[in-house]
Amino acid sequence: MNKDTQFLIVGLGLMGGSYAYALSKRGYHVAGIDINQDSIDYALANGIIEKGACFDADLIREADVIFFGLYPNTMVAWIEENRNLFKAGCLISDVSGVKCRVVDRVQELLKDLPVEFIASHPMAGKEVSGVKYANDQMFQQANFIITPTDKNTVTAVSFLKEFAKELNFANISILAPKKHDEMIGYVSQLTHVIAISLMNANDNPDLVNYTGDSFRDLTRIARINEHLWTELFFLNKDNLIREIDDFETALQALKQTLLDEDSDTLKQMMIISTQRRSRFDKKK
Amino acid sequence: MNKDTQFLIVGLGLMGGSYAYALSKRGYHVAGIDINQDSIDYALANGIIEKGACFDADLIREADVIFFGLYPNTMVAWIEENRNLFKAGCLISDVSGVKCRVVDRVQELLKDLPVEFIASHPMAGKEVSGVKYANDQMFQQANFIITPTDKNTVTAVSFLKEFAKELNFANISILAPKKHDEMIGYVSQLTHVIAISLMNANDNPDLVNYTGDSFRDLTRIARINEHLWTELFFLNKDNLIREIDDFETALQALKQTLLDEDSDTLKQMMIISTQRRSRFDKKK
C-alpha cells in the first residue's frame, strides 16, 4: 500500500464515503462511483474523492484497489456486469455484513480473471446514512475482520491488514466466512432483531416520559434501514434463526426463575451476565 | 423547600449519595445515615453531607425531609423499626424502582403517624455503586416520576416537583403506582431481562474481537447488581412476566418472517421500530 495506489470506492454511502475520506485525508488517490450524482458532487466538493462519476469505465480500468460500499446483492450484480473492466492485478474488497453467500458468488464470478476478491467487514457504523456523514473517527476502537477463503493469497490478507492499520482500526482479526456469519448472527443480527421486536411489542407513545438510558441504549439500533437489513437477515437466515432460538431458550429459563421465585438461579444468571459483559468493556 | 430544611438521606449509595451531593452543592443542610462507616467518612470528607452516622436517632428526629436510598425490602424493614423516631410533619420519599408493593406497605406502617410517605422514582443510574460515584450530572436529561396514592397530599406532590426541578431533572411526571409498575416492567425490567438472557445465551470469550457498538450498547446493562435486581424483579413479577410474554410474541413473529422469507412483513416491522424509536431521541 503506497501513495501511488489508485483506489476506487464504489458506493459512496456512510461506509464507502468514510473509507474514501480516510484514504484521501492520508494522501492516497481515491476515485468514487455512486449512482447518485449528488453524492459524487458532495464528495468532490469536500475533498473526499479526487474524481468521480455515476459510472465511468475508465475509473474502473485504472483502479488498483476497489472497495465496494454497496448492499451485498447489488454488489454481486454490479461485479457480474462490469467484471471485464477490472485491471489485471486488481484487489477487490467489500464492507458487507454477511460473507458466505457473498464471497462464494463473487469469487465464482471472478474465477477466470486475473483479479482477487477478498472479503472484509469493518465493524463500525452509525444510525445515519450517506456520504455527508463520512468520517474516519468511527474506525477508532472498532474491529476489522478479514474473511479469506482458500482462493485468497497471503498478499491480499497482508494488504487488508495494512489498510485497516492505516485507518486506525483498533483490532484486526482473520475469520473464515462461515465462522464470521455465525458470529455476526449473534453479536449483530440478533441484537437488531431484539431491538426491533422490543419496539414492536409495545405501542405507548407516552413511554418517552418515563424511560431511562437503559431503554434508549438497548433500542438505539431499532432505527434501522429496512432494505439493507432485510437483505442481510435473509442472506444469513439459518444462523440468525438458530441464534434467535438460543436466545429464546435463555429468556424462557429466566422467566421460569420468576415463576418459581427461584432467586438463587436468577442471581446466578445475573452473575454470569455481569462476568461475561465485563469482557466487552472498551479499553480506555 | 427552603435552605433551612433539614434533609436526611438514609442509604448513601449511588442514588442516595448523588441526592446528598446535589442538595449540599445547592446549600441545603444534609445529614446521612449508612450502615457502612466508610461511606459516612467519605461523604463527610467530601462535603456530601454535613453530619452522619451508621445510626443516630437524633438525625432522624431532626429531619424535615427523608429520602431513602435503600433496597425496597430493606427500607420497609427500616421504617417499621424506626417509625416512631420520625418528626411530626416529616415528608418521606424513596428511589425504589418498583412502587405498588413498596408504597402500600410503607403507607400502612405509617398510617397512624403525623408523617407522609410519597414515593418517587428518579430514572437515572450507572453501572457502578457507592457514594464515591455520587454526582448530580446524571439527573440532567433524566426523568423523575412521582407516584402518589389517594393518601398523599397536594403539598407533598408539589414539594417533590420542586425538589426534582432543583436537581435539574429534565422531565417530571405523575403516575399512579400501578401504571408506574406496568411501565417499568417494559422500559426497565424487560430490557435488563433481555441483556441478561443475551449474555447467558452464548459463552464465546473471543466475541470481543468481533463485536461492534450495537452489541456493547445493548448489553451495557447486563452488568447488574444481582441482589437489588432480583428483589426488584420479584416485587414486580406479574408485570414483568406479561412483558416477557409480549416480547416473545413479537420475537416469534419476526422469526416467522425469516422462515417464510416474507420480506414485506419484516420490512414493515423495521419501519415500525424506526418510527417508534425516533420518539425516544433525546432533545439536544
Describe this structure in words.
The structure is a homodimer of 284-residue chains. With 284 residues, the first copy, chain A, is of the alpha/beta class. Chain A folds into two domains: 6-175, Rossmann fold (3-Layer(aba) Sandwich), CATH 3.40.50; 180-278, 6-phosphogluconate dehydrogenase C-terminal like domain (6-phosphogluconate dehydrogenase C-terminal fold). Helix content of chain A is 50%, strand content 13%. The first copy, chain A, is built from eleven helices and nine strands. A six-stranded parallel beta sheet of chain A has the order 3-2-1-4-5-6. A three-stranded mixed beta sheet of chain A has the order 7-8-9, with helices on one face. In chain A, helix 4 (72-82) links the parallel strand 4 and strand 5. In chain A, helix 4 (72-82) runs parallel beside helix 5 (100-109). Chain A is elongated. The interface between A and B is large, with 88 and 88 residues.
Outline the secondary-structure elements.
The structure is a homodimer of 284-residue chains.
Chain A: E1 6-10, H1 14-25, E2 29-33, H2 37-45, E3 51-53, H3 57-62, E4 65-68, H4 72-82, E5 91-94, H5 100-109, E6 116-117, E7 119-123, E8 143-147, H6 154-166, E9 171-174, H7 177-200, H8 213-219, H9 226-235, H10 237-259, H11 263-278
Parallel strand pairs in A: 1-2, 1-4, 2-3, 4-5, 5-6, 8-9
Antiparallel strand pairs in A: 7-8
Helix pairs in contact in A: 4-5, 7-10
